[in-house]
Design a protein that fits this description.
It is a single chain. The chain is built from 17 helices and 14 strands. It has helices at about 20-30, 45-55, 75-80, 95, 100-110, 120-135, 150-165, 185-195, 200-210, 225-230, 250-260, 285-300, 305-315, 325-330, 360-380, 380-385, 400-405; strands spanning about 10-15, 40, 65-70, 85-90, 110-115, 140, 170-180, 235, 240-245, 275-280, 335-340, 350-360, 390, 410-415. The chain has a 7-stranded parallel beta sheet, with helices on both faces. A hairpin with a 3-residue loop joins β8 (about 235) and β9 (about 240-245). It is globular, with a radius of gyration of 21 Å.
């Protein structure tokens, strides 16, 4: 059901004084409608007021955001959720601070968007709040930032293209981080090194199991992963080059699999659909070294003294709320490429290829994802009614979301490739 338009605000940005929050606020102030009714929210009135003052420099004629001071108590958050149609949440680590935010939105029919990459926490939120959100009509979409919107949108785009142009299902999508030039923020480092302080290894493994986030039991792979990939972490493809383990693959794969299930399981992308994600490297040796380093770092995270050492090191790079300068961010590039194979029992099945690219700060891009997804929900009542509520995924916002991202500077291209003979 569409949210009541009589609420005080169209959206509230929670965590506006943090690194990603400030960048999201900047995009809202420079790119969203000037009559948008919005507020910035957090614990410090002084810091929030400073944010608002800085935003006036972008456009003094637009409606300036109000300030909503809030603690992270459930009662405070329930009151906040009742004031707005949508909450954009940048308060992380999410497993540590944001569970009551999701609960408050699910209970009060308030749409919610965040940029977590914490699969165990997303799994927990699905178990606890999906049904309540569906009942209230709240559309709750976690991981709508760099994790995992590009992956999810590319998989959706390719499966949709193959269905539309060829009237075929999709058997497999292989994605690769083709280029990324960026530095992690303090919040990202704190989350990555601290999540096993909150969840047991067993809980982590359960939430990370294949198809764990999907509401429909997923298919077993009809194609085996090459032996070299299993042993050495290296995979070679004709169109993507030499690939290796990507540290972001786990959260992204989980979200793509949930999209498959939410969109109808076998009736959506196809009954044999598989999604795999890697990162591009120059050669097999580099791929093996990166794979080994990721495996060793993952193993070290399970040993408390080593994990605490990594947390100390991460904190000394950037503390939570800090990140690279605007000048450094301007040089960022992110490009994700993917190929898809149609589900055909022939030697040379049809293939499709897609590319997602953004030139500029990837944390600014994260703010773009949040703000533009909010506008999709605010301006498409029919879509909101169709989605009905629940804990959903970026792909369910479909083409309207992609169109807004393109207008904001994202390049997303796709095409059917010439068939081999």
């Amino acid at each position: 059901m569409p949210l009541a338009k009589s609420r005080t605000y169209d959206l509230i940005l929670l965590g506006a004084t943090g690194y990603t929050g400030k960048l999201c606020a900047e995009h809202i102030a420079t790119s969203l409608p000037t009559d948008l009714k919005w507020a910035v929210s957090g614990r410090s009135h002084e810091r929030l007021a400073s944010i608002v003052e800085n935003l006036k420099g972008y456009d003094v004629q637009r409606v300036q955001p109000s300030v909503e001071v809030v603690t992270l108590s459930l009662d405070d958050l329930r009151s906040l959720a009742k004031k707005t149609r949508i909450i954009l949440n940048t308060v992380g680590p999410y497993y540590k601070y944001s569970s009551p935010v999701v609960q408050a939105c699910a209970e009060n029919g308030t749409h919610y968007l965040d940029v977590t990459g914490e699969t165990p926490w997303v799994y927990e939120m699905i178990q606890k709040h999906h049904d309540a959100a569906k009942e209230s009509g709240a559309i709750i979409i976690p991981e709508i930032g760099l994790e995992s919107a590009p992956s999810d949108l590319l998989a959706w785009t390719l499966a949709t293209l193959i269905r539309k142009e060829l009237s075929l299902n999709t058997r497999e999508v292989i994605a690769s981080v083709h280029q990324v030039n960026s530095q992690p923020s303090g919040g990202t480092l704190a989350t990555a090194t601290g999540i096993l302080d909150h969840y047991s290894l067993a809980e982590f493994m359960k939430s990370s199991a294949p198809w764990a986030l999907s509401p429909v039991t997923g298919p077993k792979s009809s194609k085996t992963v090459p032996l070299a990939t299993k042993l050495l972490g290296v995979r070679k493809t004709q169109h993507l080059g030499t690939l290796t383990t990507s540290i972001a693959a786990g959260p992204n794969v989980a979200i793509v699999q949930r999209s498959w299930g939410l969109l109808g399981g076998p009736k959506s992308y196809g009954p044999h659909f598989q999604y795999h994600e890697y990162m591009r490297v120059k050669n097999s040796l580099a791929g093996f070294i990166i794979h080994a380093a990721v495996c060793l770092a993952s193993l070290a995270m399970t040993v408390p003294p080593l994990r605490w050492l990594m947390q100390w090191a991460a904190h000394n790079i950037y503390a939570p709320g800090q990140g690279a300068s605007k000048e450094a961010n301007a040089k960022d590039v992110f490009e994700l490429r993917a190929i898809a194979e149609a589900d055909q029992d022939v030697p040379n099945p049809h293939m499709a290829m897609a590319k997602f690219r953004y030139d500029g700060g990837i944390y600014y891009l994260t703010g773009v994802f949040l703000a533009e997804a909010a506008m999709v929900l605010l301006t498409n009542d029919d879509l909101a009614t169709k989605l009905q509520g629940g804990i959903l995924t970026p792909a369910l916002l479909g083409q309207p979301f992609i169109d807004r991202l393109r207008n904001a500077g994202v390049s997303l291209e796709s095409r059917i490739m010439p068939q081999k003979r």
